[in-house]
Amino acid sequence: MRTALVLIALSALPACHRATAVEPDTARERLAATAPRVGTDPGHAGRGAPLAPAPGHELAAFAAGCFWGVEDNFRQVPGVVATAVGYTGGRTDDPSYESVCTHTTGHAETVLVEFDPQKVSYATLLQVFFKNHDPTTRNRQGPDVGDQYRSAVFTLSPAQAAAATAAREGEAKALGRPVVTIIEPLGRFWKAEEYHQQYDEKSGTHSCPMPKGLPATQGT
Q1: Are 59 and 71 in contact (CB under 8 A)?
Q2: CATH number of the domain that residue 146 is part of
Q3: Is 1 part of any domain?
């Protein structure tokens, strides 16, 4: 490993991830040149502040395991204009990553998405959500275990709740087994620490060039 890389050690449970800072000069510039032109301030998200998308835009929120890769997937979707990672659905105010990793706060690692509904539908975002994680495992995605990794759709309107419910039923039918995805209204969203934001772009660890679940016209 290059000497300029610094390991950020987190005092957390083994299931939590360790983040690695990236070299700030040429490596970061190369990543920025190839990264999708997607913003980083969906709904002016903050630490529990009210959310307000830009005029003509809408918000969506999804939990599907470790938020690094989930955010990266949504940042590849045409029509998504901004994303951020954070915590929601819990019992405490102002959670930190370390506290969420104790599995005592009830928060889920969540991606907040701002999108242009003229360019991408909420139904398409639901498709991307369901096709890029395992919605049949409760409080687990692969090796990551705990309620922070639960499968959940946090809705911002009755229309979103109805669409998410229909998508969950369709996914269960397609898979032939129960889907455990939780659907509930979005509560306060607590934006995560800066080193978590757009982590895959910063570290150059994109898992795939385009997420599954996009219509053929968008995924090519």
Answers
A1: no
A2: 3.30.1060.10
A3: no
- Residue 208's pLDDT is 64
From CA 205, how far away is CA 180, in angstroms rounded?
28
User: Within a domain: residue 60?
Assistant: yes
- Least Cα distance to 69 among 133, 157, 123, 23 occurs for 133
Distance CA 181, CA 220 (A): 28
- The pTM of the full predicted model, rounded to 2 decimals, is 0.83
Could you tell me if 46 and 191 are in contact, meaning their C-beta atoms sit under 8 angstroms apart? yes
The length of the chain in residues reads: 220
Q: pLDDT value at position 213? A: 79
Task: Name every residue whose Cβ is closer than 8 Å to that of residue 143 and which is 6 or more positions away in sequence.
Answer: 15
Structure tokens given for 114: 């701002």
**Pair of tokens at residue 95:** 């959670």
CB 60 within 8 A of CB 125: yes
Residue 16 catalytic? no
Q: Which structure tokens are listed for 201?
A: 């772009």
Average confidence (pLDDT) per 10 residues, the chain, 220 residues: 35 46 42 65 94 97 94 95 97 95 95 98 97 94 92 98 98 96 97 93 76 68
| Catalytic-role residue among 16, 66, 101, 208 | 66
Tell me how many domains the chain contains.
1
